[in-house]
Amino acid sequence: MIDLRSDTVTKPTPAMREAMARAEVGDDVFGDDPTINRLQQVAAEMLGKEAAIFVPSGTMGNLTAVLAHCARGQEVLLGDESHIYHYEAGGVSALGGAVFHVLPTTSAGELPLDAVAAAVRPAYDAHAAPAGVICLENTHNRCGGVVVGLEYMAALKGWADERQVPVHLDGARVFNAAVALGVPVRAIADQVTSIQFCLSKGLGAPVGSLVAGPAAFIKRVHRLRKMVGGGMRQVGVVGAAGLIALTEMPQRLHEDHANARLLAEQLAALPQIDLDLASVQTNIIVFGLRNSPLTPEALVEAARERDVLLVPFKGRVRAVTHLDVSAADCRSAAAIISEIVQGSGVGDQGSGIRDH
Predict the structure, then answer these.
(1) Which residues in the chain belong to E strands, given as ranges?
(2) CATH superfamily label, 252-341
(3) pLDDT tens digits for 42-73?
């Protein structure tokens, strides 16, 4: 099976499993888990932040970070293509009473600066909800894994600092962004007030994310984590895998990017495939169909019958490379997709696999 649905499907490496078995643990609610304490310290140092905290998921990380910045009745300025807006169950509003103020997202994953400026209401206007936080995403999932540039992020951060509005980064795949930009991950984290990143996507850990930022902010996140059920006990058994993910796995992400480029180039050569190679900047490929009777859902189902797993995505198809997908797998997947779109091997044209 060639599983291209997401980089969340990776299995722990043998080194991770060994570390998990041997992990030194304690009760993390009491702050006694030495493995988690070390993971948080390493993460904070790597990102150049005062402190960091381990959370079970990226969704919980974004939720607690945004609510640590944003009081009830304040606005969360974010993009109309952002993961927080589309895929996190409206938790910020449901649990924190904050209001989404949705702004247009460019194909580069940016929020236009003039749109951000227009969205921040004057402090003297008693009718308006004040801005509580601005949220960015890097890399940007729904924009096809594109990398948001440092120059743009620095400009937004400078503007926001002048108005004392914090900037939070959904950096689920921020290490992919750093590799693509050729910079240390701290160079990206320096452009935001706080950041959430996932250990369980491209870095290959079985579970977990971290939130990093100022120490007082992390203290608020800690309380919110407890409030939403994220207080954990001997969680060093997964933190040990996270330490390996954080310290050893970023160095291999260029392999995933190269494999994504390989697969994308082979697909783009097919007349039935609509794919902008300029958008393939990291490990995510999004493509459409043209001059074909197939729907994206039908292609996904036909590929599944040939042991290639994809997902329908925004009326198109998404493929994601990761630790458990090789260059040979990408060549095989491209050949199978080619056969399907050119009329061979098409089976049931049902609804296919839902996106995750």
Answers:
(1) 2-3, 51-55, 75-79, 99-103, 131-137, 167-170, 194-198, 209-213, 273-274, 284-289, 308-309, 311-313, 316-320
(2) Aspartate Aminotransferase, domain 1 (3.90.1150.10)
(3) 999 999 999 999 999 999 999 999 999 999 99
